[in-house]
Structure to design on (754 residues):
């Protein structure tokens, strides 16, 4: 057992009542783990869109500036006064960041000693840190030989992809539409649907993304920038009979356009006229906010429609422990295949406070995903 | 038993493939009722928004013109070419109109003779007619002494109001928000919520409507034209803890504004900060289309939200026969109190083809509801 006490550093985000958003490294001395707890030395934690939201989501990126010293860097942004009511509950609180990550178990309580020396992953928050104390039961033990980088993103994207398929089955749909489909998550969902024989309509935003997904074996890939996009969408939905979509974008017209295409595909199948459109339920879940502008919905889809938020932790609560455990076991079994993540760069906690790194986060660009490795600090 | 055969007339709506919408009276000879059927001589049928949708929903009201003769009037409107695909399934079909109504049972099959001479109401379509053959089991026998005018609107509005309250209970909400709350339906929902002790936030669009609902005993009435509307809405939602709304309007920003006010009310209650907002589910069901323009949703309400269509027949299917029967029994018991409707005018089938009448329908104005009485023809 590694000896303590441990000096810890944690990447925290604070918004002051005056609208100053500050990212900095907070030092602390780590507590002893409880009987059922372990201390994980974090070796890898991905920067997901949800992390970016917590770190800098309300800041004005054009106001970004470096403060502090080289040894203790601080990144600062302004938050517009009208946004402050939305974050009232976090004002002046230093929020630890980093939803998920993986590392080495370096210390363990008396009931968790079997985990010492193993690599584990967790979805527990506060993972952008040198160390993290966690309940042993919340950790996923990585397969033998897997690195922390391979296990770092074992929760958010894999469980989201599995959650989409599980939602589809539970709500009685037979195929899926996915937007922002070239993302790490989108590529994963594509592999999962190919493995499970589920028809998936992938919507991307560029020719390069289109080609990448086609090369990955995707059967239905549409570029929303194509002039024939709406016709292509209707055709793909007709072929797959998809009546459920997951949308990462939110703002703009895409979610409504998808519902309209689903209705048009149903109308083509014929049946008796109803003022209220097809009785088949059409649903779009919005799970992201790549566009935070207003959602614009032109209703061309009768009355059997729904739109709403979809959030992984709420979904996991809803399906219960046993079903969630089944999903986690599948992730563990296919961590290096179906659920593998790709990272564009690996940086230290201090690097993550640099203005270049933060601008990169803020762009949320496909194919530029970052991994934080606190051993580099 | 009245002797047949009966000469029938039915008010039908037809859209031709060339975009000509025609309202006319179709003559036919009535069949004999089957063993379990009755013939109802219609005495009263209301013109609800859903009827207006079927009659003239896709027509351009500015193109309305009278054709035909005094004995056989025809009203004609143009349908824009781009709307024709939406009505592909009804092209060149003369659709009988009139969702609900009431009348006298003038003939009955062998198993339904006990209904002869009684007044019944039904929600069966094709009620804008002199006669309607109906399965006896689908009819609601009116209480002794009730007129057809009193029973004419016993289904759509009463069951919709009861359905809103039932949906609230089934989905675990404790109070309601209702828009276009000064409508016949809105007044009914207000009486129902007062009777059942359910907190209801009524949103209206004018001072006159505000005063009318206040005079009817409503506790929370808001005028969306007020400059302080958003603050008042948040306050009313805070007080009532409403997390479910029924919206008759659809287009514009109101549905999204309601979700935002629900979130703000939750945020005020405190609790731990989450990037994803309050975990309490907030839902708006859109059951009408007073504004057919785009729905604009500015997301200021975290991830626990939903928006979607709500349709009475689908709701009744979903809850099953026994539950629906329980609702119908309550309507029958309170037909002259909670579920009473007010009508502004009573007209004949021929009158309903007049351009003035049709312009009045198209305005869907609060307080100008029409009843059709085919005995006047």
């Amino acid at each position: 057992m590694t000896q303590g006490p441990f000096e810890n550093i944690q990447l925290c985000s604070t918004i002051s009542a005056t609208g100053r958003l500050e990212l900095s490294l907070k030092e602390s001395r780590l507590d002893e783990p409880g009987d059922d707890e372990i201390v994980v030395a974090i070796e890898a934690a991905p920067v997901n869109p949800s992390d970016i939201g917590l770190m800098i989501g309300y800041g004005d990126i054009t106001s970004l500036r470096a403060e502090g010293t080289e040894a203790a860097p601080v990144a600062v942004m302004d938050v517009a006064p009208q946004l402050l009511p939305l974050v009232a509950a976090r004002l002046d609180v230093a929020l630890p960041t980093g939803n998920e990550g993986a590392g080495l178990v370096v210390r363990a309580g008396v009931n968790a000693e079997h985990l010492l020396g193993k690599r584990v992953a967790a979805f527990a928050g506060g993972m952008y840190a040198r160390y993290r104390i966690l309940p042993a039961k919340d950790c996923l033990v990585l397969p033998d030989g897997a690195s922390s980088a391979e296990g770092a993103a074992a929760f958010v994207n894999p469980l989201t992809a599995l959650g989409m398929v599980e939602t589809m089955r539970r709500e009685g749909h037979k195929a899926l539409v996915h937007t922002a489909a070239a993302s790490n998550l989108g590529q994963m969902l594509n592999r999962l649907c190919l493995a499970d024989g589920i028809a998936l309509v992938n919507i991307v935003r560029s020719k390069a993304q289109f080609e990448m997904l086609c090369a990955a074996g995707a059967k239905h890939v549409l570029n929303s920038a194509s002039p024939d996009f709406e016709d292509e969408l209707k055709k793909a939905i007709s072929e797959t009979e998809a009546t459920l979509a997951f949308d990462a974008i939110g703002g703009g017209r895409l979610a409504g356009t998808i519902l309209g295409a689903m209705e048009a595909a149903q109308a083509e199948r014929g049946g008796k006229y109803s003022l209220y459109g097809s009785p088949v339920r059409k649903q779009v879940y919005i799970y992201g906010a790549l566009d935070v502008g207003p959602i614009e919905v032109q209703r061309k889809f009768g009355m059997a429609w729904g739109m709403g938020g979809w959030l992984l932790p709420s979904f996991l609560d809803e399906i219960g422990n046993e079903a969630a455990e089944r999903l986690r076991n599948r992730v563990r079994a296919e961590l290096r295949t179906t659920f593998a993540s790709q990272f564009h760069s690996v940086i230290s906690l201090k690097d993550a406070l640099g203005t270049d790194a933060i601008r990169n986060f803020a762009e949320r660009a496909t194919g530029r995903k970052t991994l934080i490795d606190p051993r580099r600090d």
The first strand of chain B starts at residue 7 and ends at 15. Chain B touches chain A through 48 residues (CB under 8 Å). Chain B has a mean pLDDT of 94. Chain B has nine helices and 20 strands.
